[in-house]
Amino acid sequence: MTHLVGCVSAEEERRVRANDREYNEKFQYASNCIMTSKYNIITFLPVNLFEQFQEVANTYFLFLLILQLIPQISSLSWFTTIVPLALVLSITAVKDATDDYFRHKSDNQVNNRQSQVLIRGSLQNEKWMNVRVGDIIKLENNQFVAADLLLLSSSEPHGLCYIETAELDGETNMKVRQSVSVTSELGDPNNLASFNGEVVCEPPNNKLDRFSGTLYWRDKKYSLTNQNMLLRGCVLRNTEACYGLVIFAGPDTKLMQNSGRTKFKRTSIDRLMNTLVLWIFGFLVCMGVILAVGNAVWEREVGSLFQSYLPWDPPVDNFLFSAFLSFWSYVIILNTVVPISLYVSVEVIRLGHSYFINWDRQMFCSQCNTAAEARTTTLNEELGQVEYIFSDKTGTLTQNIMTFNKCSINGQSYGKYFIHVVFVCLSGERLDFTPFNPLADPDFCFYDDKLLESVKVGDSCTHEFFRLLSLCHTVMSEEKSEGELIYKAQSPDEGALVTAARNFGFVFRSRTPGTITTTEMGRTVTYSLLAILDFNNIRKRMSVIVRNPEGRIRLYCKGADTVLLERLHPCNQELMSITSDHLNEYAADGLRTLALAYRDLSEDEWEAWSESHRFADKATNCREDRLAAAYEEIEQNMMLLGATAIEDKLQEGVPETIAVLSLANIKIWVLTGDKQETAVNIGYSCKMLTDDMTEVFIISGHTVQSVRQELRSVWLCTSTIVFSQSTLGGAGKQLHGSPPPLPLPLSNVMDNISGEFALVINGHSLAHALEADMEAEFVSTACACKAVICCRVTPLQKAQVVELIKKHKKAVTLAIGDGANDISMIKSAHIGVGISGQEGIQAVLASDYSFSQFRFLQRLLLVHGRWSYLRMCRFLCYFFYKNFAFTMVHFWFGFFCGFSAQTVYDQYFITLFNIVYTSLPVLAMGIFDQDVPDHRSLEYPKLYEPGQLNLLFNKREFFICIAQGIYTSVVLFFVPYAVLSSATQSTGVPLADYQTFAITTATALVIVVSVQIALDTGFWTVFNHVFVWGSLGSYLIIMFALHSQTLFRIFPNQFHFVGSAQSTLLQPVVWLTIALATAICIVPVLAFRFLKLDLKPQLSDTVRYTQLVRQKRRKPVGRNAGGAWRGMGSVSEGRLGTRGGSRRSGYAFAHQEGFGELITSGKNMRLSSLALASFASRHSSSWIDTLRRKKHTHTPPSTSGECSPIK
Asked: Is the pLDDT confidence value at 210 over 50?
């Protein structure tokens, strides 16, 4: 057998030969070393500087530095620019290096993990990074899979092994993989060392659920599927050992293919500032041109008259060259409109905001001893502008812990919620099962003693109910010692149900391919397992047929109420009506429901059906359809037993958090790898979906045409309803003419409707919806809905959905998840949040922010995010204002100094103005300021909307700040100029000299900007007072020192104007001039703000006023005081209702098809008792659900004779 050996640039297929590194190295496959870092020691400096100089401002300051090194045009020393520029570059470089260091640390930790590799016939320990394609690896229980492996053999019978795929798809329930039968017996290293099979398969890709390939060995070929693969990131569970052949390594593995690239994230304010810097530079050039033209005219008309005693400097020989040099001189002088200190201050403020997040005790989880962490300092203000949140489900919204909460048996509902409110138990004592049942699970919680009493008194229907739960499942049991049972459930739902039966006296002990052994009320009973009618997503139910020791045959069935209630005997109508009400109530509580039923079979019925089942099972064509028909035939005329209600425990505070974020106009999309029913059920649990929604649309088409048709049907339905609402409800706002054409005009209308629609779309449908010709239609349809849930999505699809919204909606996005399957989504979003949960720390390492509970997200956004955005916007507005006020004085002075590029202020004032005199007050405002307290931010979520609409700092606000700054500069220049030009000292000496004018203008400037920041500051702390008044004091101290005789004696060539400050500030006219200039600058601002507050107050103004009124009344402020919080009443205080008498199914079952066949074939039965890893009991904190008044309890009907147990 020969195969073509070659290496092409674009890999079309992969060829791997086992135990032959020399052969495999010809293809130059990637090694198993991964690298998520951006730099190394050699590339850090050039790459980081290149990235930093992509910032327009840094390039701008570098250009200015070069100009300042030219003595002919520079009026300022070069150190005034190079020192702050070097500081900014250094701070950013240190921050980037620190971030990348942790990436390197994480990479090294993973790459240096140990793995057992079969080399030259013996197992040797190798680091993961040294594993190569074609190597055979031994994995042991609870180990991570090092690379994408083809499973060769296992310690389990028939080459089976169990894996947990939480890192890939977020699901913690176990999955089964099986080796090819021909290699399953190669369990010995000696046999594996001689294995030289060759695999030809697909090239590396990101499809987690697909694999196609062929194994060639001993002149035969065997097809390979995804069921034969162990993917990197999985964990081997409940399997002593297995061997696998490395097919894909390192960056070629499906996990890394789905990880996405690390992106350099920048905020919208950063991007806006880049644009504004370009505009300001253009404005600066215009001012330079104006002043240069003025210089040319002045030198030609006036300056030429003074050539005899004011000659041009040697390089200048005509007025045009003088104007050219004057232009560059003014560019240097006027560059302070955007000082480098702006960027230093921005980084300091962001660092302060990050520490506030890290120090927030209200975002600290005491259970896991984990604090919130800002892993980046560059995105804080973006937290105040989020419009879309993309959330994982398992581990993010839920704890992935199933608990048996309620049940309905023979028309009687049992079970109570266990709710803590201010640490008071509202639902009775937890039942103690130990005296009643020594085999009970001590971690099981139930709070209704009526059910236990019903079991104890021997109620036949209750016994049959739990008998069904102990028999109808695919759980495997391991009894390590007497009474110490470990259940190995393929889905957490089944584990919860079997554990419930165990505690109520019906204990599942063990199984063989043909029997199930239980302990019923202390008595051991063995049933013959005649058939398992397996579960699948179409049937939505599973059944078992068993024969009891007395020979009676009975079918037990559990499944979705929508399919099972249709298959009941007509005599069940009354019981079905009552049970349906209970199911409706459970579904409204967000519980996952299953209906339970049974059917007695005669021997003849069983024999006849068994024959037809065997015929269908052996069919070569349409086997699945034939089996489904056989199952359908027997699952008829069943007797209803009742229903179960399981809670997929939400994380604490999830419904409240989603409700508050929705009130803040934040749209939440759930992107999950779970199946549709599970995701929808959680949607109802966390109140994303409610029963009073107008419609919940489901997109599940498998073809492009069907998906497009379903999307258009949704659009047509929603747009029709919205158009009718806008027409009927808009009195005085009638739309003119006929309805506008679809889709764009109505999208604006739909954005304003509190969309009572929800959209659920499956992964295979989403793949078509994300195609280029359909993506716009999908976005417009999805964004018209209040809630969107995407099910069965791959990690890459999660990232594609995020990118789609970024592309079409131009909105700030946030992605939150806890597993490795969420990394690509976290990296793609503007902001990535990692939950430090049960699925490792990969999501945290890739995130920008991390904490341990989803509920902390509302505080991160509504408090820290909103404050950061508010502070940054106020900081920028004030900074541009004060620097235009400071710089434009030079522009006006140019018209009075012959356009000679002489500065108004001395160079020390110019250097210290932004570094000392005005830096600390604006930093204090940028770090500590707040408009309303944190609890008010949570109480009034609408306060968040200005950030989403970008109202506080935009181009309009920028021009307003610039206009105010220019107005202030006009006042600061012309008022002192007009007053001092004719003023005299008390001795009669004129005050119209350069130094007096400069000191007066500088003093007035410092006082005006200090008063302005005092007006802008909304929240005063000790730091604000110290910095504002301290800066004024430091200005006076430094100014007097610079004009003192002491410095003049030490540096006579540097400090020429001795005593100018003292003599100037001793003149009353100077202080009157300063007071006049301050009043002219500040009074219009006060008047404007007073009128705005009175005529058009913002919500924050109203909240502050309300707070003041409450304080004056001295009444305690409670959570229910705010109108916005009261508006949440329907969400946080009432249970989900139903609409129009209709009911929805609460069915959700995380089971997968195939386990029934494994059990009946005996392939997963152990030949010997192997030590299994015990499942550690996880602490589960109750989520605080909303309280609701109990419905009237129905009296159970008489059902004598309807339910007869097997005796």
From this structure: yes
